[in-house]
Design brief:
single chain; 229 residues; alpha+beta; Arc Repressor Mutant, subunit A; seven-stranded mixed β-sheet; 22% helix
């Protein structure tokens, strides 16, 4: 114990705080220090960490803590999201539902930053399916794709489901059951009804985790199989 590494409550955003309030139980320690790191929730010997994006930021932290602790990593995936626009003075000027819908496979967009760590036996990943608001502010500093509106915050409205990923069977269970024993990224994208770049991230992660192997090529396309042990 001891030390001050990690991110505390003073810098957390609304979504992180909302998830922490949703998950906390009587007897939990909030923002506990464990081996020099702030832990969102300490439940007996279990470390619960909430990460709303950019898994790469916690790669070093997880690598060290997983050596001696069991960790439950919480990642929210919005199945419904509303875009709330604020003017420069913070007044709401518009609210609309986003057409995008989150899915379990989206976690691989983050796992690509730390696939080997995701396979650690002391780590479980729990996906929380949420309804959220994404707050945009008209400050002229955001991405050109959003017309220079900045994403200021994310707010939790509801948690509507959850699924846990830990170990080979859970991760391979994300693959479409209609896939042949040997498949390409293109076939994964078609059967899973997903973009090819997401299918590529999935096979990359699952290979690095030791759950898939590359068994050959069909023309220029790599062929994968889950037959590896």
């Amino acid at each position: 114990m001891g030390g001050t590494n990690g991110i505390g409550t003073l810098r957390e955003r609304s979504l992180h705080a909302g998830l922490k309030a949703h998950l906390a139980r009587d007897g939990d320690s909030i923002e506990a220090l464990v081996d020099g790191y702030h832990i969102d929730i300490l439940r007996d010997e279990l470390l619960i960490e909430i990460q709303t994006g950019n898994f790469g930021k916690m790669k070093s932290k997880l690598s060290k803590l997983l050596q001696t602790h069991e960790i439950l990593l919480i990642y929210p995936i919005p199945t419904k999201k509303w875009i709330v626009r604020l003017n420069q003075r913070g007044k709401e000027v518009a609210r609309r539902k986003s057409p995008g819908k989150g899915r379990t496979e989206n976690v691989f967009r983050e796992l690509i930053r730390m696939p080997e760590i995701a396979a650690h036996p002391n780590l479980a990943i729990e996906l929380l399916f949420t309804h959220e608001e994404e707050i945009w502010r008209d400050d002229g500093k955001g991405s050109w794709r959003r017309g220079k509106w900045s994403i200021e915050d994310r707010r939790l409205l509801d948690v509507v489901g959850a699924t846990r990923l830990q170990g080979r069977s859970d991760f391979l269970g994300v693959l479409p059951t209609s896939l042949p024993e040997e498949f390409t990224n293109k076939e994964l994208a078609k059967e899973g009804r997903m973009p090819i770049n997401l299918a590529t991230k999935m096979t990359y992660c699952l290979r690095r985790m030791g759950y898939l192997e590359m068994v050959g090529k069909r023309g220029q396309a790599y062929v994968f199989s889950a037959g590896a042990t």
